[in-house]
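Example 4.3 (complexes with small molecules)
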Amino acid sequence: MFKISEDVRKQIESLPHKEIFVVTIEGKEICFANIDGKPHAFLNRCPHAAARLSEGTCNARGIISCPLHGYKFNVQTGKDVDQNGYRLRIYKLQYVEGELFIQL
Ligand code: FES
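Answer. The structure with FE2/S2 (inorganic) cluster bound is encoded below.
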């Protein structure tokens, strides 16, 4: 588990709905989204053809649309909403005594 700095944690927690915050951790570009007050993390790389998902749009239910071909993924589960056979890489987040950790 990798501890997310306090500054970054606060930015993630205050993210407005539908906005995505990108942080590079251990060389990986990771997107954070805040769905119903809970942070979620996923790789900034579409599993179809590697477009940057941070340039797509995320709705309030946590469904992100890829900017390149429009495939949709659930950022909470990684599931491919359109059932095209792809799976978004998501990362487990965990709070421990008020600190936020990510499992890479
Ligand atoms: S690169 Fe994302 S749908 Fe094709």
